[in-house]
Q: What sequence folds into this?
């Protein structure tokens, strides 16, 4: 059904961004505007989700009234609707947190620009999720990426600048690869609308240009998703970004890129082409395994805690791509569960660290959080609970997603992968518990004696997100049902016959 | 034969690889950005050259013309040019700030300064 | 929640068995400032649980089999509680001993002026709630969930003192237990679900013919080592490491909750998931299916006893004694004979009462005299007669001398070994009983028959501790006469059962 609602979540922040800059000379006005906008957007996305979930029909919007396949279309199906809810609600929940955190870390004169950049990033991310036009995907991707380069560069530490520059380099190369892929697709199919491309690819399949397009897309998306080995930009970017930005980017940035992966592989190229013909299963699984191992092991040895969580994110992205790479419905729904769960867990963890950064006045390391468990009990305990969600203890969302992921690997016959996931949980225990021990059993240093608990504007978002993690642990039923419905929509058949073979691609019965 | 008729694509590839090589090989941040720009420009060249239709005229309504070149890639590339411009602007702004914070725009010197800082200098990492 | 089985009152009893200690634990922090009130609530809740569980035992003996589906965590996997023979025994033991431990702990914490008492009693109550959940679980999923929560909730108890050694000990505790459960147990459970499609416990096991003997052996290994709380070597290191905790915690860990949860889980898995008949058939085909478990348990028994001999720290000695005694249960189950399995189940109860008495005594000695080492205990029997009397009775049970109940459980395991003509196991059991005597009797001898090195100026331990000790010691003797009843409850889970007549 056509609905004007679909476009508002994108355009409201986009319009509000310059208003932030124009109208405000003080950070506070910009924050108020951002808060109203993000809450409005979250409410709209929740409505959209309710509608799509209840009716089973996607929401559509034709930009400028031009009907597809000529015009640009916004198409919100169940997957897009749930991602919209995820992104917008995390933005809305963390908005109150921004007040103190941004005030503390970013110069007064720059704050309006900060909020403007944040709103543009939000608009870009929501646009990536909503759009159904290939080139539009690139445009929104670049909008959100540029905005995130700016956000990261505003970090207090000067290494944030180097990190932002490196991210810019790598991110632009990745996006340009995607652009090349889009170009090949357009040149062979003659259209830019995703469903239209999909129909035409089905007919044209063994065309070498389409195979090349897929390859370019794969590289560009792997770069954006920060899958090993193209993950190098992630640790520094998350570690040195402002404390308000890391939760948002870590929770949401890579997840939206993963959404783009799902969209491209399932909706545009189709799962037989991607996993059967192009051996994406092999590639994803082969890259996911080192991602999981390296991410977890390096996290154990990191002293800068934000960097530790960033490497942990690399591992978590590995889990999700592993689930996708299994090319089965169970694997896909496991990945979706992991996407939801990881977004909430990581943002809660980063928010807690940000609160500690605020109180400590410098980067949190394993050494300077000693004894904080006594001075900041609520923040510390939220960290513990969210950490348990990361490990995958029962009654947290992490348990549900790990269970389904292990089940998916067993169903596919990959019991080695099951053992791998189990072992990496142990690594997660080690690096999370290191922090817990430091917080509760370390001795307070002299300057930490006077630290107070985090302000309520920070505590509420932290605890809200932690509560969501626990909630997911108890109400797994609903989450599983939604992810299974999405998996069913994306991939009608339960699994592919042999996605892990080494045969060259044979598509539509012909060699390319 | 292929070389001659497809020479725009070969040029695009040459430009792309030159840009890519510049990004990787040089240590000056500004030169990296220039390489990046070249990389993006090559893609624009690729799209535009692909839009030319055999015997087609420029996509402007003209008397007596029956075959027009495809205008859509041109339009897409307008957007891409803007994106490239914005990326260059943001990149250069970051480089200006880096110059202010580090005193240099050479990448190896920046890495060395960072290493000194984390091993010897300040308390936070 | 769904109340099934028609007897809704019984199902509510099931729910209350888990909910009561949980609610008690949640309420306790509110009474942080009123120590008297807080301790009174602890005692009341523990007594109430004891009454509740005895009601449940009555229901069971009368033939009621209530079942309660608590909550569906995700599609197809629910938390379900029910009464099973082994679960009834375990729950009754745990509930009764919690009362004794609460009295003991109040005396201990006050006399030693321990800090953080509210946190202590809160985590205690919550851990008991989880133990009840494990005991009353109806499927493997429920067991696993409560098992993990037990690890988490006992961590603050182990790390109670908050100093460096406590932190290191607790770290070893947590990493070993979480490592084994996340790394081995969870995959094993998933494999079972993958192969059979269900996780419900069923008489005769659910795996039946689905696995080859080698695969069965591998899966059994994953369970045996994945259930780290059963302390089968080499995943036993957490037990001595956890001795950094205050003694009431060690009593809880070593008698009531954690270790018994471990061997209980192994027992449930062997009886209800694998099915010991199926295991026996597969073991006859290929030794890799189940025979290795016998030898792993036998190895643990002997090596742990030998280690206990060498240790001077009393609590460490008792810790290794526990490791060895736990493997008795595993050995009994691994012999795959009804007699020995019954003996193993009885041993869970017997060892609980015996070991808790020993730990109570160790804590009493520490409280009264601050002595921790066996070599310091010369002549202490004169100053602390009641403590050492309790110690002696507990030791009798561990060694296996009548009229302590430990004798009967060992006897049945021996009989099972004889029936199976397994002479190696027979030799191991006899040898280890001698070793038990070797590391326990000298302590008693020192206490009563040697002169103290320095003058002893302290007296007996505080009254609550002595009372608790004497009660558990008394139960050790009393249960001897009720062994047949216990065995008949346990035997419900076995297919071929003929009770032996005791001389």
A:
């Amino acid at each position: 059904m056509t609905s004007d609602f679909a476009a508002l979540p994108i355009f409201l922040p986009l319009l509000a961004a310059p208003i932030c800059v124009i109208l405000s000379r003080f950070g506070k006005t910009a924050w108020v505007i951002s808060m109203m906008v993000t809450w409005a957007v979250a409410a709209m996305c929740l409505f959209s989700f309710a509608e799509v979930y209840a009716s089973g029909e996607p929401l559509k919007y034709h930009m400028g009234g031009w009907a597809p396949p000529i015009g640009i279309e916004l198409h919100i199906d169940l997957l897009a609707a749930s991602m919209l809810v995820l992104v917008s609600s995390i933005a809305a929940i963390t908005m109150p947190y921004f007040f103190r955190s941004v005030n503390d870390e970013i110069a007064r004169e720059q704050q309006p620009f900060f909020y403007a950049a944040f709103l543009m990033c939000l608009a870009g991310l929501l646009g990536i999720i909503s759009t159904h036009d290939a080139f539009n995907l690139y445009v929104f991707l670049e909008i959100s990426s540029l905005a995130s380069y700016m956000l990261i560069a505003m970090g207090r530490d000067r290494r944030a600048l180097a990190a932002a520059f490196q991210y810019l380099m790598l991110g632009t190369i990745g996006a340009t690869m995607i652009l090349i892929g889009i170009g090949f697709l357009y040149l062979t199919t003659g259209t830019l609308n995703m469903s239209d491309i999909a129909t035409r690819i089905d007919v044209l399949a063994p065309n070498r240009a389409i195979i090349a397009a897929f390859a370019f897309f794969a590289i560009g998306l792997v770069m954006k998703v920060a899958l090993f080995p193209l993950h190098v930009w992630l640790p520094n970017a998350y570690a040195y970004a402002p404390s308000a930005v890391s939760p948002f980017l870590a929770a949401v940035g890579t997840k939206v890129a993963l959404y783009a992966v799902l969209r491209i592989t399932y909706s545009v190229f189709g799962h037989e082409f991607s996993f059967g013909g192009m051996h994406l299963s092999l590639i994803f699984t082969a890259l996911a395994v080192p991602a999981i191992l390296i991410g977890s092991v390096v996290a154990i040895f990191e002293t800068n805690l934000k960097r530790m969580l960033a490497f942990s994110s690399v591992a978590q992205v590995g889990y999700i791509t592993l689930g996708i790479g299994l090319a089965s419905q169970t694997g896909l729904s496991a990945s979706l569960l992991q996407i939801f769960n990881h977004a909430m867990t990581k943002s809660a963890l980063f928010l807690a660290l940000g609160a500690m950064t605020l109180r400590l006045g410098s980067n949190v390391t394993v050494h300077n959080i000693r004894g904080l468990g006594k001075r900041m009990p609520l923040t510390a305990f939220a960290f513990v609970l969210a950490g348990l969600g990361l490990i995958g203890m029962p009654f947290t969302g992490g348990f549900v997603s790990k269970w389904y992921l292990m089940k998916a690997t067993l169903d596919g016959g990959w019991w080695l992968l099951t053992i791998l996931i189990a072992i990496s949980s142990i690594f997660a225990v080690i690096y999370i518990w290191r922090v817990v021990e430091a917080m509760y059993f370390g001795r307070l240093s002299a300057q930490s004696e006077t630290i107070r608990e985090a302000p309520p504007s920070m505590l509420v978002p932290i605890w809200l997100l932690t509560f969501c993690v626990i909630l997911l642990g108890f109400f797994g039923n609903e989450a599983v049902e939604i992810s299974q419905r999405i998996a069913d929509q994306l991939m009608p058949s339960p699994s592919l016959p042999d996605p892990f073979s080494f045969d060259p691609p044979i598509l539509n019965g012909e060699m390319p | 034969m292929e070389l001659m008729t497809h020479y725009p694509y070969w040029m695009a590839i040459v430009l792309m690889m030159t840009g890519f090589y510049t990004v990787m090989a040089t240590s000056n941040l500004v030169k990296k950005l220039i390489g990046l720009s070249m990389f993006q420009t090559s893609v624009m060249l690729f799209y535009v050259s692909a839009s030319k239709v055999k015997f087609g005229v420029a996509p402007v309504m003209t008397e007596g013309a029956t075959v027009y070149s495809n205008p859509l890639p041109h339009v897409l590339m307008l957007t891409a040019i803007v994106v490239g411009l914005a990326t260059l602007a943001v990149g250069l702004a970051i480089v200006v700030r880096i110059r202010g914070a580090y005193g240099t725009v050479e990448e190896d010197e920046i890495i060395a300064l960072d290493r000194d800082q984390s091993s010897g200098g300040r308390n936070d990492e | 929640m769904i109340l099934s089985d028609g007897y809704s009152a019984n199902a509510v009893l099931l729910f209350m068995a888990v909910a009561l200690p949980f609610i008690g634990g949640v309420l306790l922090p509110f009474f942080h400032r009123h120590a008297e009130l807080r301790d009174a609530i602890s005692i009341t809740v523990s007594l109430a649980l004891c009454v509740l569980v005895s009601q449940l035992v009555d229901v069971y003996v009368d033939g009621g089999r209530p079942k309660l589906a608590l909550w569906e965590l995700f599609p197809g996997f629910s938390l379900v509680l029910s009464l099973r023979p082994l679960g009834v025994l375990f729950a009754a033991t745990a509930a009764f001993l919690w009362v004794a431990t609460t009295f003991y702990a109040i005396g201990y914490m006050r006399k030693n002026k321990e800090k953080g008492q509210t946190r202590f009693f809160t985590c205690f109550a919550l851990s008991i709630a989880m133990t009840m959940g494990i005991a009353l679980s109806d499927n493997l999923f429920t067991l696993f969930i409560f098992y993990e929560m037990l690890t988490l909730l006992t961590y603050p108890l182990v790390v109670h003192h908050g100093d460096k050694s406590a932190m290191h000990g607790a770290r070893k505790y947590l990493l070993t237990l979480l490592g084994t459960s996340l790394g081995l147990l969870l995959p094993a459970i998933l494999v079972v679900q993958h192969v059979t499609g269900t996780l419900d416990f069923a008489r005769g096991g659910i795996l039946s013919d689905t696995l080859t003997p080698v695969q069965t052996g591998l899966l059994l290994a994953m369970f045996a080592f994945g259930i780290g709380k059963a302390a089968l070597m080499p995943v036993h290191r957490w037990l001595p490491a956890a001795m950094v905790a205050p003694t009431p915690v060690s009593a809880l860990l070593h008698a009531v909750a954690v270790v018994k949860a471990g061997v209980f889980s192994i027992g449930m898995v062997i009886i209800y998931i694998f099915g010991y008949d199926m295991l026996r058939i597969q073991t006859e085909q290929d030794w890799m299916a189940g025979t290795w478990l016998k030898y792993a348990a036998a190895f643990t028994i002997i090596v742990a006893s030998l280690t206990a001999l060498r240790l001077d720290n009393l609590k460490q000695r008792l810790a290794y004694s526990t490791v060895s005694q736990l493997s008795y249960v595993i050995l009994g189950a691994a012999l795959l004979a009804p007699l020995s399995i019954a003996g193993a189940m009885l041993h869970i109860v017997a060892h609980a009462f015996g070991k808790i008495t020993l730990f109570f005594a160790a804590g009493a000695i520490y409280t009264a005299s601050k002595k921790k080492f066996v070599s310091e205990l010369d002549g202490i029997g004169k100053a602390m007669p009641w403590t050492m009397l309790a110690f002696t009775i507990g030791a009798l049970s561990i060694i296996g001398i009548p009229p302590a109940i430990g004798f009967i459980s060992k006897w049945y395991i021996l009989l099972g070994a004889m029936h199976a003509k397994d002479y190696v196991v027979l030799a191991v059991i006899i040898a280890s009983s001698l070793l038990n005597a070797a590391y326990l009797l000298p302590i008693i001898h020192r206490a009563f028959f040697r002169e103290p090195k320095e003058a002893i100026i302290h007296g007996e331990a505080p009254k609550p501790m002595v009372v608790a000790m004497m009660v558990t010691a008394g139960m050790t003797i009393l249960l001897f006469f009720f062994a047949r009843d216990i065995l008949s409850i346990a035997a419900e889970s076995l297919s071929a059962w003929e009770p032996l007549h005791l001389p």
User: Anything to note?
Assistant: The longest strand of chain C covers residues 67-74.
